[in-house]
Design brief:
about 600 residues; two-stranded antiparallel sheet; 26 helices; mainly alpha; homodimer
């Protein structure tokens, strides 16, 4: 009996770890460990903060930063991507779970775990079915608008922790209005901690590294210290709460975070819950994948490496399934931490596995220290991190370049702020597809003439060209398909309606990449109508794939005119008094 | 005080009746009356039958054939279109009302009236906003598949009347399974009437006219008599039931049909009902409009007349609102009766108004005669009428021409039969848009070379062409937009990856009708990456509108190469040893 042969290359394609682990050396390991230490320091406060943003207990953030990183190290293709809880996906998790209207913390945690499982399953399925191209339907402007609006929503949602008041909601209006209502209840100790933390973190970001460099520290160490800013903020504010007993003065603290490694968990298999969470899981998967893949591609390009988008889907899918079985919630590759990982010298995905060990140690040893950590400090961490996502320049860029893109990005921003993340990004996708279809349903059709002294034909309205009274040449600047088939019919028939000397219409097809069944029927109709008026219809510069297809229909038999290889052949053949021999040539060209 | 001036031309555009009524003569009136008589004879049994198909009382079919015809005569632009209840829209009405789960006949009638009102309002709104192009998103194959599947569903749903048993459902499986369950209860008197009527109607359709002609009758009269076939079937079977008291033997009859003109009715304004019916009304509007406009266009073309699609929306919208205020249900232009109207010599929409008078007389005088009319006869009328809609040749045509169109049509047929009309047509539209986007997301890219002795460039794989080792020219056969931007990036970078002597890449853009923001960012990325490899990027044959837009971005400043007016200019300029003077020329071409 012979087993099906699996080659090493196939295995390596699906398990990228086999690829890089072969050439793993002590030097590479050292680089990876250094990067892992820096990322761990950065990731501990971020994990806690994003879990709170998602409306989950802080420890779920830590759990989501352990096993998922190991899974990505095995299945992922990017050498620098750092996976874990990220801001936008945490916000989307909060929205998805908010829709369910749950109040029991155990049920909320179960929903988050199930969401991670579903989105892992969706990513894995997309990877296996090679559906990575679906992510392309999120246009760059829609993503940019969505990220900016999400950043604003996230920052706004964290203000309640800064003011120490109650506020909630999934849209900017809900958040702002509940916040304003409760503003008189502001806790001034909390506000002081929050504002001090924000100010400190901004200063760390802009001023600390230059300062450290000026004291003569080596650049790499200065960098590490600057990244440790949030840890310093956490340590100092936690100490302050403990020393002055500020929790008794109304400062909200993280409280008990269970000590120990992540528990083994299982998602819910309740079909009702699955159907409620499915659309959210799909959106989280696609947004998470797009964000992650664009970070991975940017970093890979810097080192002339390549990533495999379909295998990235598998890597992220495995990470999310890992999150689901270890008490986490949806994860993806984060921008800031991946850049830090890259800059710190991570050479292989092993850096992620080492980071996981760091976070696991934190979960085992540090959680008792987090009891007095004020939520305001975590909120400050989030606000400073997400404000770097907010970038309105895309509005200006698209306004100058393309009004259609501008509409898509402006609508995405407005709808995300006004109706929440899920409505915003869905509307952005639908709108950009709709606007694209609308544009292609009214194609640009140019009447062209010969540029004197060349064999080149251009628009008679834009260039000085030669024309003939018996001949109209229309260049159709779009593939012909159902949405614009009737438009072309109307256009051609209107153009020829009152043109008496006309004998020939040439449709020039260099830009026609497809003629579908509906368009074929329209062409047959045009041919028939023109023939009734005594006008012959010709085609020129029909592309190979289009011609192949036309040859499989009856259209070419019915066509009253000819098909010319080039428009110049058509021009010469259809002259009222053609030079001798042209007819033969053009026939040969068919 | 001066009122805004409305010109006669503007008024005529919105009230087409002003246009044709000016030149209305006694001759035209005679033609119209003759056509009206024939259509009335045809329409009486059809109206009753389609109302039963829609699950409504028979008189609602008559009511829907009076005022709506008058409204269309005023606002419609087609001179031969006959408006009224039609098979497919009746089936869709049955599905829409079936979704509501109502049992009270008064509530069912109110729902049908509300559906007519909503679909009238949608059509009017589309007409005023000039949204007629939306109908283009129903591709020809999807419509063909949908009509075929609807015909089968309708015929299947009528079999219960032929067998005289209870069966129901909105999908083929539901209808067939309930029918089989009840088959032992078949009423043999009903079955005899039903089969006899079907056989007679088929014979009328195929054999009667030739027979009448052979007896020496004038062709026009033979035609009229052949069209009166269903009336003969109605008369004979009604008489048979009355004579033999078959209603006592279980033959289902129409029963009391109220005598008199249509009542004045008002739709419900209950927001809950509106939101339940909205999607159905939208689908009915679009399907009805597409069906109607294609009939109108076919007939107009035969007389070199033109119809105005946006004004047609207004005409059909007014008809449906008229149906709603006069106890009717959704109507549209029907194929069979419009052809009859046209063949019978209708010259203006006044023929429709005369038909309305005929139906009104029938509602006033004939309804008592309909008491003993067996439902089996009406079912036979429907079955014979709809079987002419069933045409599977579209499957063969699309299979040969385009697999993508085949998938769309096959899925539309399967889903309409399997899941009902609303799911079927929605899935057809979404699928054809999805497949179109999928195709454009993986564009055809051809590497091209010079056809010797010409200035023409073609695919190196299909033609014998000249190439240069330093130069790769890629012709991109698709507009560049978000869905394929990354594809192009990958394609170009893969192509140049291991090509050592390469110095220049020319992207030839004759088929690129658009470069959106996402694609612009991809081009910037390609330019940057190629530049890092020491390769210059050029563009050629960029279309006017695309060039205009590129000039508004920074891309042309960053471009490492040039933009050439024609590919031949690029070819000459980028030769390793270019002829003198070329550089100046190509610069001038920018």
């Amino acid at each position: 009996m012979q087993l099906p042969q699996i080659t090493r290359a196939q295995l390596e394609r699906h398990l990228p770890i086999l690829n890089w682990s072969r050439s793993y050396t002590r030097d590479t390991a050292t680089s990876d460990v250094v990067a892992a230490v820096i990322v761990t320091i950065m990731l501990i406060p971020q994990s806690l903060a994003y879990a709170l943003l998602a409306g989950l207990p802080a420890e779920m953030g830590l759990y989501a930063s352990i096993l998922p990183l190991v899974a990505y190290a095995i299945f992922g293709t990017s050498r620098a991507l750092a996976v874990g809880p990220v801001a936008v996906v945490s916000l989307m998790t909060a929205a998805a779970i908010g829709n369910l209207g749950l109040t029991d913390p155990a049920q909320i945690a179960l929903a988050a775990i199930t969401l991670a499982f579903l989105s892992g399953a969706i990513l894995l399925a997309m990877g296996v079915l090679r559906l990575g191209f679906l992510a392309n339907f999120l246009s760059h402007p829609v993503i940019a608008g969505f990220i900016t609006a999400s950043g604003i929503l996230i920052a706004a949602s964290q203000l309640r922790h800064i003011f120490g008041v109650d506020a909630h909601g999934h849209t900017l209006i809900e958040v702002a209005s509940t916040l304003f209502t409760h503003l008189p209840e502001t806790n001034f100790f909390t506000l002081t901690i929050g504002i001090a933390a924000i100010a400190f973190l901004f200063w760390v970001r802009k001023g600390l590294k230059p300062l450290l460099l000026s004291t003569g520290l080596p650049p790499r160490l200065a960098d590490v210290l600057a990244k440790a800013g949030p840890v310093a903020a956490v340590a100092v504010t936690t100490l302050a709460v403990w020393l002055f007993g500020l929790q008794n003065w109304g400062v909200a603290i993280v409280g008990t975070v269970p000590t120990g490694l992540p528990p083994l968990t299982a998602p819910s298999f309740d079909p009702a819950l699955w159907s409620q969470l499915f659309m959210s899981a799909l959106l989280i998967s696609i947004i998470g994948f797009v964000e992650s893949v664009s970070v991975a591609q940017t970093l890979a390009a810097k080192k002339r490496q390549r990533i495999t988008p379909d295998q990235e889907l598998v890597g992220l899918g495995a990470s999310n399934v890992a999150a689901a079985v270890s008490g986490g919630y949806p994860v993806t590759g984060g921008f800031a931490r991946s850049v830090v990982n890259f800059d710190a010298g991570a050479e292989t995905p092993a850096a992620g596995a080492f980071t996981a060990i760091g976070i696991a140690l934190a979960a085992l040893l540090l959680t008792p220290l987090l009891f007095f950590l004020p939520k305001a400090t975590l909120a400050a961490t989030i606000i400073v991190a997400v404000l770097s996502l907010v970038d309105f320049s895309i509005l200006k860029k698209t306004w100058g370049y393309s009004k259609v893109d501008f509409i898509a990005v402006a609508a995405t921003i407005a709808l995300t702020l006004g109706f929440g993340v899920e409505t915003g990004v869905s509307a952005g996708v639908i709108l950009s597809i709709g606007l694209h279809l609308y544009k292609t349903s009214r194609p640009h059709v140019a009447e062209v003439g010969l540029v004197p002294g060349t064999q080149h034909f251009r628009n008679i309205l834009r260039h000085e060209v030669e024309t003939l009274p018996e001949l109209v040449t229309l260049r159709v600047d779009e593939s012909l398909y159902f949405a614009n088939a009737r438009f072309l019919e109307d256009y051609v028939l209107n153009r020829v309606a009152c043109d008496q000397p006309l004998k020939h219409v040439v449709l020039m097809f260099p830009a026609v990449n497809e003629v579908d069944m509906s368009a074929l029927e329209s062409l047959e109709e045009i041919n028939k109508r023109l023939s009734e008026m005594g006008i012959r219809l010709h085609l020129s510069e029909v592309k190979g794939p289009v011609m192949d297809r036309l040859q499989r229909s009856h259209f070419l038999d019915e066509l009253t005119g000819q098909v010319f290889l080039s428009q110049y052949d058509a021009w010469r053949a259809l002259q009222p008094d053609p030079p001798t021999g042209t007819d033969q040539e053009s026939l040969a060209a068919q």
